[in-house]
Design a protein that fits this description.
Elements lengths: L24 E12 L2 H4 L2 E2 L2 E4 L2 E2 H14 L1 H4 L10 E8 L4 E12 L4 H19 L7 E11 L5 E2 L3
Antiparallel strand pairs: 1-6, 1-7, 2-3, 3-4, 5-6, 7-8
Helix pairs in contact: 2-4
Length: 160
């Protein structure tokens, strides 16, 4: 854990982190969102996908997540605008009627991509909610968390 907040200047005011002196390195981050589905929605799963009149839910969620990850610098005020090298979203279900969304963002740059991965996973989860809410509003986005990051000052790896 850092000893101080990085987005504050010496007077305590909000500031973008100056990454000018940092070294360029390969950076990767993986974030996960978990969406709990009620039976009314879960029962619509067919071959690992939910089809709605709006389209294939998971496929559209993947596209929405990637689009959002690319716009993170526009959505979160003090994030640097980044040109991602790659963004990949994988979606699968488990036996607890949950959808697991993993977003992996990579870049070779002076700053990390944790926020891009978190935004990508979050937007994919929100898209699933939006596309399935006609069947039930009892959908719960349980959590979004950073699972792993590499590159930069230190690596991070969460077990679960």
């Amino acid at each position: 854990m850092e000893n101080s907040f990085t987005h504050l200047d010496s007077t305590g005011k909000a500031a973008m982190v100056d990454v000018g002196a940092k070294l360029v390195s390969r950076r990767t981050a993986v974030a996960r969102s978990v969406v709990a589905l009620p039976e009314a929605v879960w029962s619509q799963l067919n071959n690992g996908e939910i089809q709605t009149p709006k389209g294939a839910v998971f496929q559209i969620a993947i596209i929405a997540g990637i689009m959002a990850a690319k716009k993170t610098g526009e959505l979160i005020p003090l994030c640097h605008p980044l040109g991602l090298d790659n963004c990949h979203i994988a979606i699968h279900t488990n036996d607890q009627m949950e959808v697991i969304i993993d977003c992996t963002a990579t870049i070779t740059a002076k700053t990390g991509v944790e926020m891009e991965a978190l935004v990508g996973a979050s937007m994919a989860a929100l898209t699933i909610y939006d596309m399935c809410k006609a069947m039930s509003h009892d959908i719960v986005i349980k959590e979004t968390k950073l699972m792993q990051k590499t590159g930069g000052k230190r690596d991070f790896n969460r077990e679960q």
